[in-house]
């Protein structure tokens, strides 16, 4: 009787409110095992130089904070996302810094109204761990599974998604809940094809997603187009209605892009011919990676090194459910696949795009399709094509749960889902631990923050050489020879650099290059964080979409210094006497352990 009561409690239909409540509670509890309260509150030592260590760059989260801080303190103007003080005179649109623009605008509104600078990024990061499970609960409810068993299993499997946890350090790309909400809206739209509230929600979701990240926007936009097309194919709504809904959504998106400055000539440099490099490996969803269930694979990733962007491991629990429901899924596709043909087509396109024109099976290149340069340039706008697996992955999570619930008796379904959830959580433990360790340990700073802040607060602007965009050029021109190997190694080994790039006698040259690159780039980011807090103009910006004129920068380093502007040289470069307006070099310049700085004072008033 007790087991029957438990089964009834887990499988009895419920309203959506208690299901969402338990989902949010479970997700928040899991998030709090990784994130300190001070991080969530947007304060504490973590935010002096926030870092993520699981993906390619260790500077993404710091860059987000730079864009957020500058926009928050900037005056309101059009376009609303452009910050004049970041890489003046043209300034920078923080959309290209992935600074979660809609959240930055909320922080800016609070600052404008109260004068209080609030860092909302910590709350947002926690939400990125909490909301995917709640969104999956809505997906399952829309598919007819409105009970605690569905909510608990959907939340657990989704919050323990490997490729979600792997995105730690890049908040805009952690907003996977937007993708899952789109899948939920897709199902709801098919059930309520003429409901204007659903259409309005779609339009709001598209606008918010555009102000999150371009990749996530295209994923959500594809699912929206599938919902639109499927209703047209099924003839559940008039053509006039579909056209009106389509024009309303596209119109608002274009208006949002224009007002925020996303739709500008800056887009010309958005594409680069690197498509096919940051792709998904063909077996990535199915080969255990960074797995807690198989300890020898705790740090293993399939494929070549640049396929980290295509990390797509589904997890042991999800894979188990897909195997259990494989026969049921096949029957469903044959019987009802046509009723979702538009979504299937969109997800197929995403899969092919994620694999790219160069398909790898492990380290073996299976297929290499030459593409015209113009196509590579356009596709290069989404250079990290492997990310497009995410909508497919979350659709597979929902399918695994739904087929289990529909093909097994309640008691067997409880056991299967319970076991799948348990092994999924264990499987992602290395990823969870890496996030927890990264979030708990503040990064050691290379530069003297207090001294630099003192200099910055006395200046009207900051010039850095080399800028972030010219680090590679500086290395090619031999800037590394200006400091000794011992000095650079001492600086970069203050934090986790040695664990990322282990030094070995057989790879000293490669370590040297990586250490120099890390020092120049990290030094740039530390200076940007300090100037962002002071809202002082700085010439350096970490913008992957920006084309930097490094030849012009190299020439400008030999020009006379502007009065009242602080110059920081991440090398041993020292300006010549004729650049210092007749000041003695020792009176306006200092050589610290890791950089040279100069500040020529303003002329005294006559």
Tell me what the structure shows.
By secondary structure, the chain is mainly alpha-helical. It has 3 domains: 2-32 and 124-440, no CATH class; 37-123, no CATH class; 449-599, no CATH class. Helix content is 54%, strand content 5%. The mean pLDDT is 90.
The counted number of beta strands is: 8
Alpha carbon gyration radius: 26 Å
Q: What would you call the shape?
A: elongated
Oligomer: single chain
Query: Could you say how many structural domains there are in total?
Result: 3
Helix/strand/pairing class, anyone? mainly alpha
**Helical content (DSSP H or I, runs of 4+):** 40-55%
Strand portion, in percent?
under 5%
Distance between the termini: 95 Å
Name the average pLDDT: 90
**Main sheet attributes: strand count, strand direction, barrel closure:** 4 strands, mixed
Strand neighbour order, sheet with most strands: 5-6-8-7
- Stretches with pLDDT under 50, minimum 5 residues: none
How many helical stretches?
A: 26
């Amino acid at each position: 009787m007790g087991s029957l009561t438990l089964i009834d409690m887990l499988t009895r239909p419920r309203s959506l409110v208690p299901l969402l409540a338990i989902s949010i509670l479970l997700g928040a509890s899991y998030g709090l095992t990784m994130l300190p309260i001070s991080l969530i509150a947007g304060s504490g030592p973590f935010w002096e130089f926030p870092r993520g260590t699981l993906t390619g760059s260790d500077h993404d989260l710091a860059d987000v904070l730079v864009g957020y801080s500058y926009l928050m303190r900037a005056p309101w103007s059009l376009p609303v996302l452009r910050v004049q003080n970041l890489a003046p005179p043209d300034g920078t649109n923080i959309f290209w810094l992935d600074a979660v623009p809609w959240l930055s605008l909320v922080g800016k509104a609070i600052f404008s109204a109260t004068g209080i600078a609030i860092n909302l990024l910590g709350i947002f990061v926690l939400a990125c761990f909490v909301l995917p499970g709640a969104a999956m609960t809505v997906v399952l409810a829309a598919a007819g599974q409105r009970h605690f068993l569905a909510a608990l299993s959907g939340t657990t499997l989704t919050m323990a998604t490997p490729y979600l946890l792997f995105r730690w350090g890049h908040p805009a790309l952690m907003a996977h809940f937007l993708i899952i909400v789109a899948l939920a809206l897709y199902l709801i739209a098919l059930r309520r094809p003429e409901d204007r509230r659903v259409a309005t929600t779609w339009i709001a979701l598209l606008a918010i997603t555009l102000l999150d990240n371009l990749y996530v926007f295209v994923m959500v936009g594809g699912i929206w187009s599938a919902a639109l097309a499927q209703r047209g194919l099924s003839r559940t709504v008039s053509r006039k209605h579909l056209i009106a809904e389509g024009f309303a959504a596209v119109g608002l998106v274009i208006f949002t892009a224009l007002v925020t400055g996303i739709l500008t000539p800056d887009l010309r440099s958005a594409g680069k011919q690197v498509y096919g490099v940051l792709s998904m490996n063909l077996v990535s969803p199915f080969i255990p990676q960074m797995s807690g269930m198989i300890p020898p694979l705790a740090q293993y990733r399939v494929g070549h090194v640049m396929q980290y962007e295509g990390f797509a491991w589904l997890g042991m629990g999800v894979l188990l459910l897909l195997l259990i429901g494989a026969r049921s899924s096949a029957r469903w596709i044959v019987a009802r696949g046509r009723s979702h043909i538009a979504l299937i087509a969109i997800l197929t396109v995403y899969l092919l795009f994620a694999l790219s024109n160069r398909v790898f099976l492990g380290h073996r290149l299976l297929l290499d399709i030459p593409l015209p340069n113009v196509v590579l340039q356009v596709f290069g706008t989404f250079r990290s094509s492997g990310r497009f697996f995410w909508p497919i992955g979350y659709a597979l999570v929902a399918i695994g749960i739904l087929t289990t619930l529909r093909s097994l008796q309640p008691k067997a379904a409880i056991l299967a889902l319970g076991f799948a959830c348990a092994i999924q959580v264990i499987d992602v433990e290395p990823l969870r631990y890496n996030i927890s360790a990264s979030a708990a340990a503040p990064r050691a700073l290379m530069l003297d923050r207090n001294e630099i802040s003192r200099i910055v607060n006395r200046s009207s602007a900051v010039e850095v050489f080399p800028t972030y965009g010219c680090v590679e050029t500086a290395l090619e021109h031999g800037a590394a020879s200006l400091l000794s190997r011992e000095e650079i190694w001492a600086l970069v080994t203050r934090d986790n650099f040695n664990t990322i790039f282990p030094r070995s006698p057989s790879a000293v040259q490669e370590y040297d290059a990586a250490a120099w690159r890390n020092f120049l780039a990290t030094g740039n980011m530390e200076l940007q964080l300090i100037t962002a807090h002071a809202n002082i103009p700085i010439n350096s910006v970490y913008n992957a979409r920006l084309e930097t004129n490094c030849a012009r920068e190299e020439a400008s380093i030999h020009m006379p210094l502007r009065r009242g502007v602080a110059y920081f040289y991440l090398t041993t470069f020292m300006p010549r006497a004729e650049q210092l307006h007749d000041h003695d070099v020792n009176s306006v310049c200092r050589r610290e352990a890791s950089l040279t700085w100069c500040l020529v004072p303003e002329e005294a008033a006559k």
